[in-house]
Amino acid sequence: MQRVELTSAQAVRDFERRENARLKSVKEQKLEREDSAFRPLKRAKREALKSQMQNFSGPGRKFAEFAMKKSDERPSLSRQAQAYDPGFHVQAFSFDSSNRLPHNDVDSDFKDKR
Question: Is the pLDDT of residue 38 over 90?
Answer without folding.
Answer: no
